[in-house]
Specification:
The complex is a heterodimer of chains A (about 240) and B (about 475). With about 240 residues, chain A is α/β, with parallel strands linked by helices. Chain A has a domain of about 170 residues: P-loop containing nucleotide triphosphate hydrolases (Rossmann fold). Helices cover about 35% and strands about 25% of the residues of chain A. Chain A has a 6-stranded mixed beta sheet, with helices on both faces. In chain A, strands 2-1-4-5 form a 4-stranded antiparallel beta sheet, covered by helices on one side. By secondary structure, chain B is mainly alpha-helical. Chain B has 2 domains: about 240 residues, no CATH class; about 220 residues, no CATH class. The longest helix of chain B has about 35 residues. The chains are: A alpha/beta (about 240), B mainly alpha (about 475). The interface between A and B is medium-sized, with 32 and 35 residues.
Chain lengths: ~240, ~475
């Protein structure tokens, strides 16, 4: 099966700090790949390198067949991204922000897309509220919605369920699973193992910038072990630590 | 209180040094020393153009305005801090989670601003003057007096704007009324400026006529507004959740001729819906412009051959480029970084927004031309203004990208900015003296401005954007 994401020897340093160290991995079309790691392990840096927001110090990154370093804007045209930290512009309303993204992405039927997402994520009553006045959970819903507006083949989500209540978490997990069954690919990063255990088909465990485990969830854990045990074992046994 | 004050000082330093590097930011006071020294050293050569009394008055007013701008951060700072630092939390907000009152924090904040900015803005300037003493015959006592009176001017500005921000929180309409009255008072006193400025600004009066009474008056002007601000600090006020109908598409439709219409529409909404609305641009732009217009008429008394309209057009061209700072103030590229948008596209959108807002400057210049009866000179003045404005904003974009307000605090950035603007400005001012039409030589700035702008777009598109 074709690779949607192909990373070889990816390294990214910030001064003396190596945030991502010589990582190689592939994500195939139709996978729901989870990148797991503790706080500060390099997950967000990895996603930013995949999407061309950061340039690798070394290595190659290919996304959707494109070189993410040479064509970062083209990569971001094709993929959807829900960042962890960034929030929508303060002085647009939720609806205006989706329209704004629609203009940038040249989406024709933005109204129907907006209606769907306001209904699905149940925040239609907030669509005329300024983004800066939205709760964190509602802003997260908005950022999830904007990633899917153009129906991309690949979506990269950093901490997808942060600030969301259990009902919304269930909805989004179900949506992501259905999205992948429908031919899409999802690359998500999280430090919440239950998410990966529940919905991911393959995972990678990153610790201090190093990819220390990678493979199908079923292979990585046996019937006697939960993913949490696998994860903790991997972290404790990390030779780079 | 001591702990908070010390922590705030460290925080202020680290905020700036994180942004620009310790060396880059530390260079800024050295720059002030240099400029003060150079200005004082060369002043005898143009003292007939700029008499001592005028120069001293201008410096005091500048520091009054500097204090006001630092204090004004209290009005708009929360928004700027939120956009600039995202989830970063400052000590000023810690009363929400720590057992310390808002009043204590505000008092510490005021003291921190006093110490920090006196050290970084006032002392270096006076040190520069002090270095020039042997050459210009400036007595030590005058320098020491200026150290005190400039500090007091700064503090008067700081205190009053803190007071205004307290009034604003309680009643924005009351604030507007006060500002309107102040503007009317300033315009009225401009007609008798020699007596007016000195008596209107007690620290300046103190410089010329030191007396316990004037010192007491000045201290009252500092302590009373500050005390009122602290005393009537409004701790809890409910912000209404503001709702707006979808307006972005409508504005985008109106601006549809531009491929960046959605970006310009967003800028318009940002400006209109942010705290203070478009009025803050007017306030922060119109007041300095009014000040310059009044100062020009003072200058006319000493250099009658100067054409005020053309000189105003030249200066307005440079000042108007600060409008670009406003359209970038509340927006960071990190909001666009995960979307298929290039930095150059965002800059292009900002420049178009800047162009539209600059119509305010055009209106001011037209009003000035019609008001002074110089209709024949209006068109060349407009051309001069437009070419200088274009060049100045091109330089701003080149050195500052999407963050000019921050970058310009970095001496390593500010120096090239000055180097590219100052010689041009001085040349045009001088050539306009014998014949105002010579200022049309500013049209020669358009090709280099265009080149600088193209280089700027390439430069900033090639860089990873800073996140603050």
């Amino acid at each position: 099966m074709e690779s949607i994401i192909d990373v070889k020897g990816l390294t990214r340093t910030f001064g003396d700090v190596t945030a991502v160290n010589n990582i190689s991995l592939s994500v195939r079309k139709g996978e729901l790949f989870g990148l797991l790691g503790p706080n500060g392990s390099g997950k967000t840096t990895m996603i930013k390198c995949l999407t061309g927001q950061l340039r690798p110090t070394a290595g190659e990154v290919r996304v959707m067949g494109l070189d993410a370093v040479a064509q970062p804007v083209r990569v971001r045209e094709l993929v959807g991204i829900t960042p962890e930290q960034e929030t929508p512009p303060s002085f647009l309303t939720a609806e205006e922000y989706l329209h704004f993204v629609g203009h940038i992405r040249r989406i024709g039927d933005i109204e129907s897309q907006c209606s769907f997402w306001f209904d699905f994520l149940e925040f239609g009553d907030k669509k005329d509220v300024l983004c800066k006045d939205l709760s964190r959970g509602t802003r997260q819903k908005l950022m999830v919605a904007q990633a899917f507006l153009h129906k991309p083949g690949l979506v990269l989500i950093d901490e997808p369920l942060i600030n969301l209540d259990p009902i919304m978490q269930r909805k989004i997990k179900t949506y992501l699973t259905d999205y992948v069954k429908g031919g899409g690919t999802v690359f998500l990063s999280t430090h919440i193992l239950e998410i990966a255990e529940e919905i991911c088909t393959r995972i990678g465990i990153i610790h201090r910038g190093n990819l220390i485990r990678e493979g199908p969830v079923a292979d990585l854990r046996s019937s006697s072990k939960h993913l949490e045990e696998v994860f903790l074992e991997a972290i404790r046994g990390d030779p780079h630590a | 209180m001591n702990t908070i004050f010390t922590a705030m000082l460290k925080e202020e330093w680290r905020v700036h040094s994180t942004l620009f590097g310790s060396a880059g930011f530390a260079l800024f006071p050295l720059l002030l020393v240099f400029f003060a020294f150079a200005g004082a050293f060369f002043w005898p050569f143009f003292s007939d153009v700029l008499p001592a009394q005028t120069a001293v008055a201008l410096i005091h007013v500048c520091y009054l305005l500097a204090g006001a701008s630092v204090g004004g951060f209290g009005l708009f700072g929360r928004e700027v801090m939120n956009r600039r630092f995202g989830q970063a939390s400052m000590i000023a907000y810690s009363s929400r989670s720590l057992p310390v009152s808002e009043q204590t924090i505000l008092l510490a904040f005021f003291l921190k601003d006093t110490v920090y900015y006196l050290f970084f803005w006032v002392f270096p300037f006076v040190a520069g003057l002090a270095f020039a003493m042997p050459w210009i015959g400036l007595p030590v006592t005058s320098v020491m007096r200026m150290l005190a009176t400039l500090s007091l001017s700064f503090l008067v500005g700081l205190s009053f704007v803190f007071l205004l921000s307290t009034i604003y929180v309680h009643s924005p309409r009351t604030l507007l009324g006060i500002l309107a009255a102040a503007a009317a008072g300033a315009a009225f006193s401009a007609h008798s400026v020699n007596a007016g400025v000195i008596s209107l600004l007690p620290p300046l009066a103190l410089y010329y006529r030191p007396s316990p009474l004037l010192l007491l008056t000045t201290l009252v002007l500092i302590i009373v507004p500050s005390a009122i601000s602290v005393r009537f600090l409004k701790v809890e006020y409910r912000e209404e959740t503001r709702r707006f109908p979808e307006t972005l598409d409508r504005l985008t439709g109106i601006l549809a001729r531009s491929p960046d219409a959605h970006l310009i529409a967003k800028d318009a909404l940002d400006l209109n819906r942010s705290e203070g609305g478009a009025g803050k641009v007017v306030f922060s732009f119109l007041f300095p412009v009014m000040f310059i217009w009044i100062a020009l008429f003072v200058l006319l008394r000493f250099i009658p051959m100067v054409n005020a309209l053309m000189v105003f057009a030249i200066l307005l061209g440079v000042i108007s480029s600060t409008i670009y700072n406003w359209v970038t103030e509340f927006d960071l590229f990190t909001s666009y970084a995960f979307l298929p948008v290039e930095v150059g596209t965002v800059i292009r959108g900002k420049l178009q927004s800047y162009g539209l807002l600059n119509l305010v400057s055009v209106a001011i210049l037209v009003a000035a031309g019609l008001g002074t009866g110089q209709v024949a000179l209006l068109f060349p003045a407009l051309l001069t203004f437009a070419s200088i404005s274009f060049y100045a904003v091109a330089v701003t974009v080149y050195v500052g990208g999407l963050s000019p307000s921050i970058m310009l605090y970095n001496a390593k950035v500010y120096l090239p900015y000055l180097g590219l603007i100052t010689p041009v400005l001085l040349f045009l001012l001088f050539v306009s003296i014998p014949n105002p039409w010579f200022a049309l030589s500013s049209l020669c700035l358009i090709p280099p401005g265009w080149y600088i702008l193209r280089k700027a777009l390439f430069r900033w598109s090639a860089r990873e954007q800073p996140s603050f």
